[in-house]
Amino acid sequence: MLHLKENEKVLLITRRHWLVLVFHILPTALAFSAIVIAILLLPFVSLGPLSDWLAETFPIAEYSAKITVAFLLALLLLILWEVIFMQVAHYYLDTWVVTDQRTVHTELLGLFNRFLTSIYHHQIQDVSVDVKGILPTFMNYGNVQIQTAGAHREFVFREIPEPYKTKELIVQAQFTFLRELQESGSSPENVEKEQKPEELARDD
Amino acid sequence: MLAQILIVAFVVALAFSLIIKWIVSYHFRKFALPEDKMAKKIISRHKWGTIVIALFCVALLIMLVF
């Protein structure tokens, strides 16, 4: 779970554009739909050679052969349902959070591989936007790259919606953060020390 | 004999489904943001979808056996 300081305010929570999810799950969803249609049409079609093979291998009637095929297709449906769930989880748990003090990125890289990193706004050196392609241009999504002074030199928001607004928000948040630091007379190192220990940066 | 093979196949597929569900739900609990209603919806819809498909498989097995 993402831990925030008491006075830390969330300014933006963003994920990849919904089109990216659609492109990822489309093949699996099409296969899922095809199997559902095949199961629905099964009572009305003849199995032909498959029915003969099943009757030879196992002593069953054509009716039972159709139920067997429907059952195997349903098992395939169950597996595809889990694959879709994993793809949706992979999309949904890939999150970028911008607060008034830092930017956090969490990502599920695999079933046993997750990643969490954050940078304070004073570590940001440069923010740039990259929108490439016809679809990203018309649907207004792209990458926001942050050059940092931290351990992770590059911090990238991938395929997020409204990248230009996000860039402006980060720049404004950085400006406000540095101004408040200056006014309070505090140093950036003190802000980092006050933060509770975060989740593991990488957990393989 | 066919019914036994199909029952084993069903148990294996169901076990795979439950393991995936457990691991991904763990990641949702660990990584989802506080008070994230969409995350709960995703998990809930997945759970009910799995139940419907599993019940359909059980119904077909019963039709085959009896």
Could you walk me through the main structural features you see in this protein, from its secondary elements to its overall organization?
- The complex is a heterodimer of chains A (204) and B (66).
- Chain A is α+β, with helices and mostly antiparallel strands and 204 residues long.
- Chain A has 2 domains: 10-16 and 95-203, PH-domain like; 22-90.
- Chain A is built from 6 helices and 8 strands, in the order βαααββββαββααβ.
- Chain A has helices spanning 18-41, 49-57, 62-92, 134-139, 163-184, 188-194, and strands at 10-15, 95-99, 102-110, 113-120, 124-130, 141-148, 154-161, 202-203.
- In chain A, the strands form 2 sheets. Chain A has a 5-stranded antiparallel beta sheet. A 3-stranded antiparallel beta sheet of chain A has the order 5-6-7.
- Chain B is mainly alpha-helical and 66 residues long.
- Chain B has one domain (2-65).
- Helices cover 89% and strands 0% of the residues of chain B.
- Chain B contains 2 helices and no strands.
- Chain B has helices at residues 2-31, 37-65.
- In chain B, helix 1 (2-31) runs antiparallel to helix 2 (37-65).
- Chain B is elongated.
- The model of chain B has no long low-confidence stretch (mean pLDDT 87).
- Classes of the chains: A alpha+beta (204), B mainly alpha (66).
- At the A-B interface, helix 3 of A face helix 1 and helix 2 of B.
